Amino acid sequence: xxIILISTSTVKVETSPQPISxxxxxxxxxxxxxxxxIQKGLLFHxxxxxxxxxxxIQHLKTSLSRTLCFFPPxxxxxxxxxxxxxxxxxxxxxxxxxxxxxxxxxxxxxxxxILEPIYVPSLLYxxxxxxxxxxxxxVSKPVFGVQVTELVDGIFIGCTANHVVADGPTFWNFFxxxxxxxxGFNVLSKPPSFNREFLDGLDCPIRIPFxxxxxxxxxxxxxxxxxxxxxxxxxxxxxxxxxxxxxxxxGTSSISSLQSxxxxxxxxxxxxxxxxxxxxxxxIYLAIGARSxxxxxxxxxxxxxVQFEATTSKVSDILxxxxxxxxxxxxxxxxxxxxxxLWNSFESWIRNPSPMLEKLDKTGxxxxxxxxxxxVYGNDFGxxxxxxxxxxxxxxxxxxxxxxxxAEEGSxxxxxxxxxxxxxxxxxxxxxxxAVSI
Length: 438
Known about the structure:
Layout: E1 2-11, E2 22-24, H1 27-30, E3 38-45, H2 53-68, E4 77-82, E5 88-93, E6 99-107, H3 111-115, E7 144-150, E8 154-161, H4 168-182, E9 227-234, H5 236-250, H6 257-272, E10 281-289, E11 306-314, H7 315-320, H8 322-335, H9 339-351, E12 365-370, E13 388-391, E14 400-405, E15 412-419, H10 420-427, H11 430-433
Parallel strand pairs: 6-7, 10-12, 12-14
Antiparallel strand pairs: 1-6, 2-5, 3-8, 3-13, 4-5, 7-8, 9-15, 10-11, 14-15
Helix pairs in contact: 2-4, 5-6, 5-8, 6-8, 6-10
């Protein structure tokens, strides 16, 4: 099995002039400069009756161009100004440089080859373009890319987005919008908002101590070669059981389904790591969304509006004090993040800016990304719903936990990136696997 490149082209915004020409970046955007892109893709059955390949590819290019009319930053590039005080300021230049569109064929590759193996096959990583690109490279490289890979019986649409330009909600709003345009819509159900009024009164553009000339010092140390990905599926019923158990153990009703599920994974991961001392600290990084907490930020805000925070505990407490304890520790940390706290952190970062470096590649740490609330399976391009979602190799590091909604309503898929021996130990963990639906 191999991936054969058929063509590469550049898709630009269909109309002009641009509705927006420049976007100033915020602390939530800028701290992601050293990291890699967002890579998520959807697997579909081939259209029935089969469409002529060139016609289908051309349709996707045309609908992509029309969608970019509503999302012009994705067809642009990052702009950098390096100042005399050794600081730099970045913005998004909506210059319509375009989006690379790659058409490829998976020779002999079937849907079963992607979904049936216990571990996600590394071949899937070649279903994405712009592999290995760091976010700061968006100054000279595309900030968004698309690859459509034909399989024997399916189609995979993979998108790569510069994480400085977009976060998860922005990424999936674009994907949803592209699917709408592909189905023939002329108006989006959820058009993006480029409102930056919450930056009024701040000294913009924000200057940070970041130089592309010194980029080697910003490279992450994670080595993905010794890691594997495995997708664990949790049904709605099993998640409800975990939630009931966690709340009952603490005597509360405030612990959410997701907190209960992540606590379940955290505990199994901790049990499965050899050599952890009972007094050693273990932590799980969570994404705290600002859209629902900061009133001045629109729900369809284009950009990053999320803050990453860690819940930390002793190994012995995670292992001995039960599911409810681990879940409630996360619950308490999240509850602290009021609008006032988020805004104080935002302004504090402006006074003392520093790009975020990868913190996950450490024994005992987990980090979550994505959300089960994203409309993944509503992405119908005109020939039916997707059958699976997968992520690319970007930002893969030890302990990365990617959360997706499952194909069945209320279910959740967890894509865990860990050393093989830890994944094998978790698969042998009876308490953990009791909640996993095969």
